[in-house]
């Protein structure tokens, strides 16, 4: 085919799609290596412009996901929304597991005599587990890459923590409202101060060790505290979540937050 070239009539028939399949294949193979014959074909400038525009839209401007779009609509900046949307897959698995666990806790509360204790034990720990799975080396596959960006460090940790706390608090509050003995708003959020205290403690301890390890230590202390309260003969809800105990949770939370802010500023 080296000495063969298209005639104007053949080029016109090919462009009008009036050639048979075998001839069309031969023409296309020839056009790949023959600029003079390609120049004989009419060009649709509008079609070419639309094609390049569509290509640039896919390559240069990738479409945002559902989560990123929703976050952008809340008023967050584009880079912040993208960063929050790019949470580790373990965090996403935690979110789904949280829904399952809370449903199981509600089922136990409505069917077992002391089933509400399952929610009492779990609610303060749910945000803590989420924080442990939302940031850090070994958790986030992109941690090394993200660590050299301008948003790395404390800002990224703060954003990821907020991304965990908001859905965790909403889910636990919703589950608290569905408990069988919930009458007032207090009955649904009695776990809130302990949960925030545990998260603050893990963030502060995370300044000196891996965040997931720090969360594990704080979670272990929480379980140990519940065991000690139970062995003391007091009911777990009364001893740990009673109104008189909430003042001490508030003091401890304020102390931990103050220490955390101080450590971040002097770092």
Automatic annotation (TrEMBL):
InterPro entries: Znf_put (IPR027383). The keyword Lipid biosynthesis does not apply. It holds the Pfam family zf-HC2. The keyword Membrane applies. The chain crosses the membrane at residues 90-110, 116-136, 157-179, 185-206, 213-233, 245-264. Keywords: Membrane, Transmembrane, Transmembrane helix. Residues 12-38 form the Putative zinc-finger domain. It comes from the Bacteria. This is Zf-HC2 domain-containing protein.
